Amino acid sequence: MRDDQELFHGAMGALGDVKPLAPKHKTANLNKQADDKLNLRARREAATAQTARELNPLGGEFVEPVDPWDPIEFKRDGVQNGVYRNLRLGKYHVDARLDLHHHTIEMARSALYQFVRDCIDADVRCALVTHGKGEGRKQPALLKSCVNAWLPQLPEVLAFHSAQKQHGGLGATYVLLRKSERKRQQNLEQHQRRNK
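The structure assignment produced for this chain is given below.
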């Protein structure tokens, strides 16, 4: 240990212009009350400040473009083929509708996320999202492409498919939603009563 110190001091002395720093005593600001209020406010704002992106998990980055005339479709594993076929054919009653016409991308992202949450809270199983085809626009089918990219990101969405002509055709999408926990519990209780 002593050898290390001697080597260090020797090396510093060889440089010639190295001098130890004089200790400086800084004084602390004793006006703590004003600082504490500012710090408390800043900490509170930082803790409660959540951006829209943090509250909404839907990615707003690159979205794979979809042709205006192509159907969009998605089905999670576990969704029965017959259930998906009935959704595709528009055989389920549409309990809620969302129209995204005249929405910006960010407005549509926020509206779609909130719509799905509201549907789950209201025990809606089948919903319709109208997004349009975006024909004749600089970027055709932009909202349609976004809906196609966003819906699979929501775990509450079991499946979706472009709608039948009477519900908007390729400019709208049927969405099959997961049962809410409350509805699942009610079904379980009904089946238990039937089996007794």
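Interim note for the steering committee: Residues 28 and 35 are 12 Å apart (CA to CA). The mean pLDDT is 83.
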